[in-house]
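Bench notes, bay 3.
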Amino acid sequence: MVTKRLTLFFPKSETEKPIVYHLVKDHNLVINIFRAKVTPEEFGYLVLDVSGDEADVARGMEYVRSFNVDVRDSAVGVSWSAERCTHCGACLAHCPTDALRIADPATRTILFESSTCVECLACLKVCPFGACTSLY
């Protein structure tokens, strides 16, 4: 079994189709949605983990692409700028997965680990210097 974090970008015309339902039912995939904006008549996106046999994941993504949905493997939609960060620590208590954490206790230097980020966007709201940004 493999798990891939993906971002799906939907054109306006495809946001009302039950695509996730068919990924689960027809392609035997387990879906965990982290972030979504899928509304009628608007561009939409889903950030999700897709788990299943590698062949099922590949077939499922081909199915998704048949709707002109852009599938991207680099699904991290939150970025952190080391240059803008002042290491004030305002973000630390708000990060539920410790994707933002203290790298060096002696200097209180903050580190961002994108692989553990679940894109809750809590850091965006509390960073006074705009070091955390979203691609969405």
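Next record in the batch:
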Amino acid sequence: MASLNAADREAVIKFADGCAVTRVPLSIIEQGMVEKVRKKLVGNPDYRGEVKGWFDLLIVRLCKFLTSRADANAFHGHMAYLSRVNDRKQLPHESELQFDLYNYLLSAMPSVLLEVSNVASGRTDIYLPLNGFRFIIEVKRTTSRTWSCFSVRPHSKQAASYSSTDVRLGVLATLDLSIREPGVPHVSDCFGVLKRKHSLTDERSVIFMRVPGNRLPPSSLSR
């Protein structure tokens, strides 16, 4: 710690088990989003102990990813997949969101893998192995011209199915390619929890994250 500058020492609390334990600053809106999701997870049989601690961290990191991409200038670099597409035959694929999220999580979580096979007889998009359990992130896109809350529900079934042999917590990240007014939806409408009931005794929780793509900046409203 002595070699860190003052700003870094303020951000890094300590080092433990090979990891830097850091403070993650959240805006008022982000705090509300995180707390809303955490409250909806109460009652999930696996959302406790060490699993809860790691999943809470993942929730915070996903929230930060979402707000950063909602703010980002979509017309440059590796985030070009967020920009407006004039020809809907050339819409970006979900793999662009998948690799962006994967690279973001590499610096935020202890271990992140891509395309892991033999999980619930399928192959995962993003796989996070932890101490005796794992989290799986399913990445999709929706090409519907209009967005509704039902756009993610079919994909949430697949996201929930990957938890059939592990903790009943998962994540669905969806690239929203609907046609909207310039700007992006409010982030608080893009982050939440879906519950999938597989049987009377088997209910699983899926975090959904809607990443708005196919967009124009607010300045285009005054042209």
